[in-house]
Request: fold
Amino acid sequence: MADRATSVTVRQAHPDDAMAMAAVIVQSWRETYRGLMRDEVLDAPDLLERRERFWAAALTDPRYSDNRALVAVRDGEIIGVAMSGPPLEPESPWSRQLFLIYMLAAHHGSGAGPALLDSVIDPDDVVGLWVAEANPRAQAFYRRHGFRRTGDPKVDDGVRVICMTRDPRLTIGA
Reply:
């Protein structure tokens, strides 16, 4: 567990963060998805390089200008990454899609995850996301933040995922 005495800062991601963001994603995937994703995907020798290229493009290409990419930083090191943007499906009922939020396992429970989530989406946004069905920790995190399971599962890159949405216009329990 991370030292809670050291504060976490959430800030806009910059192009020079691409390598550190890629490293967080790759380590998080390996910590979270081992046994869910194929080992050849998680252990691919070029995985880090491909993730770095993705982040370099996501942070500089004008096609992604409507996305929000943020990082959580502790003691000068990036420990978490989040990105949201317009929904990928044009017919989506969401105003925003949470594409990803990853935190290094050593920093789970540090408050960095909620800080990233609160910074990458607005409280009034109707938000949707896809999460691994076999990832109860992530699902519990999203439920604590107002998300509910909706729709049918699908398979994405060999992983069964479920849709969760948060609609602030609905009053839970009313």
Notes: The longest strand covers residues 77-85. The chain has five helices and seven strands.
